[in-house]
Fold this sequence. Notes:
heterodimer; A: 594 residues; alpha+beta; Beta-Lactamase; Hypothetical protein af1432; 4 domains; 5-stranded antiparallel sheet; 4-stranded antiparallel sheet; 19 helices; B: alpha/beta; Rossmann fold; 5-stranded parallel sheet; 5 strands; 40% helix; globular
Amino acid sequence: MIDAAHYLKAAWVLQQFALALPLLPAGASLALRLGSKLTASVGEAGDSLTEDMAGCSSFPILLEEERVGVLLITPAGEATRHCGPLLAHALQGMLQSEHARRAVARETIESYREMAMLQRAVIEFNHLLKPAAVAAALLREFDKLKPGADHGAIFLYDEAEEGRLELIQCVGDGAADIFSRLQAGSLFVDMVSHATGDIANDLPNSPWWTPELAPLGALMWLPLNAHDERLGWLVVASRRTEGFSAADMKRAQVLVSVAATALRNAQLYAAEQRLFQSFVQVIATAIDAKSPYTAGHCRRVPEIALMIAEAAHMAESGPFADFVLDDAGRNALEIAAMLHDCGKVVTPEWIIDKAFKLDAIVNRIDLVALRFELLQRDAELDLHRALAQDADRDAARQVYLERVRHLDDDFAFLDKCNRGTEFITDEQLARIRTIACRTWRDSHGATLPLLTENEVYNLSTQRGTLNPEERRIIEDHVVHTINMLSQIAFPRPLRKVVEYAGGHHERMDGRGYPNGLTAAQLSIPARILAIADVFEALTAPDRPYRKPGNLDWVLDIMQRQKLDGHIDGDLFDLFLSERIHLDYAEKHLAARGK
Amino acid sequence: MTYRDKDKPMGNPAKIVIVDDEVHIRVLLEQTLEDLAGEPEILTAINGAEGLALIERERPQLIFLDVMMPFMNGYEVCTAVRGNSDLTDATIVMLTAKGQESDRARGLEAGAHHFVTKPFDPDEILALAEAILEPS
């Protein structure tokens, strides 16, 4: 039924009537009714004219072969018989062209609508990088498009398991429940087995109806296709049985085509991210695996660094009031913290793990030679012991004991020096040299100093177990870290990773390595990473060069490091005031006691 | 959405004037606005001068005004309407070409209230007209 009532304006119809009146007898009345409405009338009886009124001539008004109204004229007669069809024909012609014009306009308005929707959707969808965010945006747009839809859901195919659909996002009252029941039924299997989407109105009277589908009245579903790949489905549901029209479907298709492309891009982006993260993970695991002592260091430092960074981000006053940690910054700091020691991959592990000053990659033939020498001397000793039966036993014994005590004493001293737990004084250095001057005879009968030059050199290391050359090699790991990370083509948001990771051994006073940067030259995240590295190293269960210390001992050392310009004082204060050490200890150190 | 609810009773139907020299914009805008509740009276003019005369005579609540028109452009009509103390109730929506951001600045200067780019989004037009006419 065409609603033609408002196709013709009363003023225009009255003009037509005015043109016709002179052709009709005086006192004639005219009326046009379209649908149930009186569009226009002239003459005394005009308003009250009806088809069944005696003496009233009626001329049907047709549009698209359908009767949409009637032209009424009184009185009947010759003039009316000629004039009526003429006027009806003119009105009909106008209606026809108005009808056509409106149809064209409606189509144009609809394309405007689609175009506007497309523009909005392209802008809204294409900058989203997370599949779930695109799904949410699609449902939001759809809600604007079709206010009658009560529930909406996006199902995506599982990337790992072929053919499995996962409910990613849904909207509407009780939607999660409704869609999971839908997904469990046979209708859903049928829906997603086809290449195209469809509409199912009047569900309760359809062959698919099962009580589980309540309260759904109608469904519309569309595949999310990008290129040649099916990513998933958009499913919308209405409680009303006449929920969806072909026009809804057409508009939804426009929306879905844009969303699917954005979704595919988001999925590719997420896959790239996962690929990169897994590479970072592999490198971090390799570094940790290199030394049993530092196992987990590359896993724990990011955790501590992020705890400090979050605290700095939350600070509303003080030195970090302006510090902002956005998603990109958080990601960069985490990656830098995971990779900060990657240069250790090229550091020889015997240096990383050097527990004693005399530790080295040993050629064990020397030790074997030593053992042969000792056995030979034992034999010699036995021989002499037998021969000397007649000597002054007591005096000889006294000399022997004195020598042994002296040897024991010297060895105990060297053994202690070898551990590197205490600072070696100048006096002790002299004693090492004195001991070294003693001689022994090797298996070839050669007289040699008790300690080789290299042994004296290593034992004379005043602090720790690493001699200067070895310390240089260890410090070089940061240089290697910087060189390695500089070769990675980090995208813009991750450019800072090299700076953060490469600064973890710098000191606030500029005496750190490798670049001697000062606090002012180091970014806050770089300083955070430096503190996290120190804290993790000090709280780690075991290190080759020391036993694990308790938390008080750790904080004591860090407090001293703050005072002598090693670590950032403001960050250390924040670290303490936000009780990060306690949170961390609770999570990781509880088992060992504090 | 309420604009589809044509049976809603209202007092005097609102008056809307469309001034645009392009016939398709007049036709499309008029037909779009027919979906508004309360069946507002929609009047059209084909140039600036005729538009201003129509506005002064009919005192519409809402005016859609094209920028580029013969015999007074949109800015001039807008300035004239805003300068007329009898027409303070009228809300002026200027129709600008896509990408012509400078139109917007000049329109604001002339006193326009809203801007819609052509080709217009029918839903945006309806939502805007509804928001403007609803409180009356």
